[in-house]
Amino acid sequence: MKLTPIRFALWRRSALHRWMTNGGLSVDSAASLFHKLLGGEPLDIDTRLAAEVGPTAVAQFRVSSKELPSYRFVDLFRAVESHSQSQTHPRIIESQHEEDLNSLLHGKRQRWISRRITQPSITAWPTGPAEEHYFPVDRFWLFEQTDGGRRDPLIIRLRYTHVSERAVLEVATDNAAVGEQYLRTIIDRSVEESIYRKQVLELAFEAGTKDEYGDVERAERLRVLFKAIEPVNDEDIVIDEVVRHMLWRNVIDLHVRRAVLKANGVPVRRGVLLYGPPGTGKTFACRYLCGKLPETTRIIVTGPALLQVTQIFSLARMFQPSLVILEDVDLVFASREINLYSSVLGELLDQMDGLRPYEDISFVLTTNAIDRMESAIKDRPGRISQCIFLGPPQPELRKRYLRHYLRRYDASQLNLDELGRESEGATQAFLKEWVHRTVQIALERLDQPDSQLELHNSDFRQAMDEMRRFSEGSTGRIIGFHAQ
């Protein structure tokens, strides 16, 4: 029988009615699905999903979802992508929508919210210390799962929401238990293969913003950044041998030999407090520790990020073995008599007490003012296992510092014994600046920029006089002299 235009229109109307009645589709969705079956692609995401997996299957789908911090987006994307590549004939749809997956599959279409398939925004995400890649902020993966010979359709969606600064993972299937299992599998895989594992990380806190009506424009968030630090090797660090040994025993050795130590009942969780005046090498010592532990996730926390205690320890647990370095903790975790953040202090104490002996987490705290520290942190065994004082170096160590900073200059005319005596009370930071100031003064003697530079003790004395001028008592401590 020839299908005339009138007969075709009647058949189309009848088909649309059947799909609407049996599949629960709207007129627009049924028409879009009909367009798909005739060789075109649906224009709307809900219709496209129904066309891919079938309207009957979509009606039975249940959605499992999980919201995670924004920094987890890349890990989740890589985990889903890796999983989908192991499936048979996976399909990908990239389209950006405000509605969650359950609303797209089952919710009534709202006139003011478009479901038209649109190209999602592409955002650059850091994937390493000096790397970044571009990812779509909204993607759907569709494939069939095999279970006992059955092939059941499944949808996975990952999106990034700018307002709430969250990564949202959604799984849709006709079996809620299967959906939850997929959700856990992807999240576990994203942690195990995380781009942050075994890296040096720096945490930065960004406050949220609101518009003039008080509505949130951007939520506050804790950013996890890759920190590129210049490694400090044994030959590069000038440090008192007793201090070096204590750092090795209480931090490095616990991570390097953690398997054998745990097998013999030695807990690898330990807290170390580095204290001493400014400029005495606490930050440098932390860089040294980071360089000695390439198989450990190293997390450095400073400034306002110190207030995000729960997230800090959550990150440490997720990517263990880990070393957490909390710098200048006296600024936040000071004694309760002077502490404006007593609730955060209590949170820190709870987290420190909550670490289990089998957890591969160590933490290092640094402070310039140990007398300001809360006694519950520094005086209670089990929270801090070792205190290490870093003070102004002694004469022999000062000479080693000077030799280290003078490596690129002609120091053949220098009397280092004299310089060691004349620098009594100088911190490491002062000695470094002293060399730089001396070189600047010595360069004034050169007629030509490429002439040979030669340093003399008199250059150091002139530099010392200038640096210490107007710097006595407390002002001397500002520049790192007589800090004890």
Core attributes:
484 residues, alpha/beta, Alpha-D-Glucose-1,6-Bisphosphate, Chain A, domain 4, Rossmann fold, Helicase, Ruva Protein, domain 3, 3 domains, 5-stranded antiparallel beta sheet, 21% strand
What's the SSE blueprint?
Blueprint: H1 5-23, H2 27-37, H3 45-53, H4 55-60, E1 62-69, H5 73-85, E2 91-94, H6 101-106, E3 122-128, E4 131-136, E5 138-147, E6 150-161, E7 166-173, H7 176-192, E8 200-206, E9 209-210, E10 216-218, E11 221-226, H8 241-256, H9 258-263, E12 270-275, H10 282-292, E13 297-301, H11 309-318, E14 322-326, H12 342-354, E15 361-367, H13 375-378, E16 386-389, H14 395-405, H15 416-422, H16 428-443, H17 457-468, H18 474-478
Parallel strand pairs: 8-13, 12-15, 12-16, 13-14, 14-15
Antiparallel strand pairs: 1-7, 2-5, 3-4, 5-6, 6-7, 8-11, 9-10
Structure in words:
With 484 residues, the protein is α/β, with parallel strands linked by helices. It folds into 3 domains: 58-192, Alpha-D-Glucose-1,6-Bisphosphate, Chain A, domain 4 (2-Layer Sandwich); 241-389, Rossmann fold; 395-478, Helicase, Ruva Protein, domain 3. The chain has 18 helices and 16 strands. It has a 7-stranded mixed beta sheet with strand order 11-8-13-14-15-12-16, sandwiched between helices. It has a 5-stranded antiparallel beta sheet with strand order 1-7-6-5-2. The radius of gyration is 32 Å and the shape is elongated. It starts with a helix and ends in a 6-residue tail after the last helix.
